[in-house]
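Notes from the 1:1 (GR / supervisor)

We went over the backlog. Supervisor wanted to see one worked example end to end before approving the batch request, so GR pasted a single chain during the call. The sequence is below; no edits were made to it. Supervisor asked that the structure be written out right there so they could see what the output format looks like.
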Amino acid sequence: MINSSIKAIAGLVLLTAVVSSCAGSNTQESVPVAVNTVEAKPTQEILPTESKEPVRLEGNGEVPFYARFGENETFSDGEWTVIIFYRPPECIPADFNLNQFFHFPNEGNPGAFACSPPTTTSIEYWTNGPDTDPAPLSAEMTGRGTVPVWFVAEADMVQAMEDGVVTIQELTAVPSRLVGEAETYTELLHPSQTNVQALIQFKAEGTLEDGRSFTVDVSYGAPDVNNHTTIEIQ
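Structure output shown during the call:
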């Protein structure tokens, strides 16, 4: 189960680079192509094959990370940094550095898979499938129920990240932290391994512990997308 989940999420490695890639152009170095100078003999005409329908897979939220947070995975509107949790915050290991984003399993340690149940599920579209493709063409994530959402003042977040280590205990102790739950959550990902232009978009609507409502609208990536992080707390 863990192995198949890792394969299915392999394409999400791009998430640590989506934001930084939006800041600059996405260029590729030209690679010389060898030219065959031998004259080819006439062959039978090859007809183009029909395009293949993507393979649709339903995920169960078993992803090897805890939150939409990491060294290159913070989203802020200049006042607040928003953190979406894909797993319950209370079962995140106290000493795990969230800046690393991924917590893959190893011998004797299931990593993020030990923190259950997941808060989201997903539908993924693959060219062939996780056994052969480096990443899905796209993934659409939704909340299973309420999804934990935290807000931390940007100034406090900058300070917390200065030493390169941010733990769940450290975030819990931040004075400006606001805790809420999203009644609705949606996320769309286009991994860079299978798309010319990576894309990440997510929206959350819910209520804070103090009774105020919040909305989050984030979008970064494709040329026709207006890159933005919009956070409203009322």
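Supervisor's comment: Helices lie at 2-8, 18-23, 154-160, 168-172.
Batch request approved.
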